[in-house]
Amino acid sequence: MDRRDPAQIYGVLGNPAKHSLSPLMHNAAFQALKINAHYVIFEKKSEELEYFFSSLSRQRIFGLNVTLPYKEKVIAFLDTISKEAKLIGAVNTIKRTPRMLLGLNTDGEGFLRHLNEDLQFEPKDKVIALLGAGGAAKAISVYLGKQGPKKICAYDIDATKLSALEACLKKNFKGINFVQADTIEGLCINECDLLINATPVGMKESDPCIIDGKFMHRGLLVYDLIYNPPETKLLALAKKLGAKTANGLGMLLYQGALSFEYFTGRGAPIEIMRRALNEGVKRL
Ligand code: NAP
Questions:
Q1: Which of 79, 128, 156, 274 has the fewest CB atoms within 10 Å, measured from its CB?
Q2: Average pLDDT, the chain
Q3: Chain segment 228-272, per-residue pLDDT in tens
Q4: pLDDT of residue 6
Q5: 6 neighbors 38 (Cβ within 8 angstroms)
Q6: Do 8-105+250-282 and 108-247 fold alike per CATH?
Q7: Could you tell me the pTM of the whole model?
Q8: d(CA 68, CA 50)
Q9: Span 55-85, pLDDT tens digits
Q10: Sequence spans of domains, the chain
Q11: Nearest residue by C-alpha to atom 32 in ligand 1
């Protein structure tokens, strides 16, 4: 890109969004690859979205990440969305091309890349327990479903969301072994290879540990999607009992890296983005 051109603008759209770590990792990547672009925060109210989307080209905005509470709502402003985003029913990445606004979802693939590349965990033929059946759980399950797990057993306090997740997976992955648990005990975690916490329980200091230690075992990988705090009570207990643990910072990193690749068409400088995130998370 010619340095004399005005910089391209990218950003994260959400509300609240001001504590987002995305600007740190994307700006570090732009700088490393000498791309003339800036990544900023767009904290918008719901009623501001229509005007915001109509002004993208005037503002030289070429791409967006989308966070809570707009991952579903933005779909109405897009021209087309990817097959995965359609399946998940949510968009976390928007690319503006000369002709259209394209919506994508990199959350599930980001999670899978973290599992595969950093944690050396292959979901194929594995038994997986999933806590939560909301937006993040759906994004993840769609990618886990593609890998051919032996079983996915899920629990959510909201039975309607659990049934919706089951219907989505069974429709799209013929023969998938998906089981709804009525209680946390019903997840049979002692038979599992991977336990994922996709609920917000653990974000607040006052939150309890969502799982009793008696369900954990040394062969288990416990993955908490939460990254702030970096070690939830669940992860601290799992570590104490000898299980392998991971927080959600890796998922954040890889979903961002995939978005960066869609935005720029260039390979993401993963280690530079990781370093920026690790520094940023210390300041939260
Ligand atoms: P969500 O759509 O609200 O889904 C969370 C689900 O968990 C809801 O259905 C909720 O039910 C249920 N739940 C709450 N407490 C529960 C409990 N004690 N037992 C069982 N189920 C319970 O939220 P989300 O967007 O999927 O996010 C979930 C978590 O993932 C959050 O902590 C979020 O920060 C994290 N996340 C991380 C990343 C990353 O990159 N690392 C990306 C996305 C999300 P109710 O609605 O009835 O409360």
A1: 79
A2: 95
A3: 999 999 999 999 999 999 999 999 999 999 999 999 999 999 999
A4: 87
A5: no
A6: yes
A7: 0.95
A8: 17
A9: 999 999 999 999 999 999 999 999 999 999 9
A10: 8-105+250-282, 108-247
A11: 200
Amino acid in the structure at residue 173: F
The DSSP symbol for 20 reads -
- Predicted pLDDT of residue 4: 65
Residue 227 beta carbon below 6 angstroms from any ligand 1 atom: yes
pLDDT given at position 247: 97
Closest to 35 in 3D by CA, of 62, 64, 63, 2: 2
Tokens of 36: 């003339």
Distance (Å, rounded) from C-alpha 177 to C-alpha 174?
Answer: 9
Q: What is the DSSP string of 122-149?
A: --TT-EEEEE--SHHHHHHHHHHHHT--
Rounded distance, CA 72 to CA 65, Å? 12
User: Closest ligand 1 atom, CA of 227?
Assistant: 41
Show the tokens assigned to 23.
Answer: 């600007």
For 112, other C-beta atoms within 10 Å of its C-beta total 21
The pLDDT of residue 3 is above 70:
no
In what helix (H) or strand (E) does residue 9 lie, and over which residues does it extend?
A: strand 8-14
Question: Is 71 labeled as catalytic in the residue annotation?
Answer: yes
- Strands 178-180 vs 244-246: parallel, antiparallel or unpaired: unpaired
Residue 69 pLDDT: 96
At 133, list the tokens.
């059946």
| C-alpha 134 – ligand 1 centre gap (Å) | 6
Q: Which CATH number fits domain 108-247: 3.40.50.720, 3.40.30.10, 3.30.160.20, 3.90.870.10?
A: 3.40.50.720
Q: pLDDT tens, 20-55?
A: 999 999 999 999 999 999 999 999 999 999 999 999
Q: Looking at domain 8-105+250-282, does it have CATH number 3.40.50.10860?
A: yes
Q: Are 117 and 134 in contact (CB under 8 A)?
A: no
Residues 105-119, mean pLDDT to the nearest whole number:
97
Angle at the Cα of 255 from the Cα atoms of 250 and 257, rounded to 5 degrees: 95
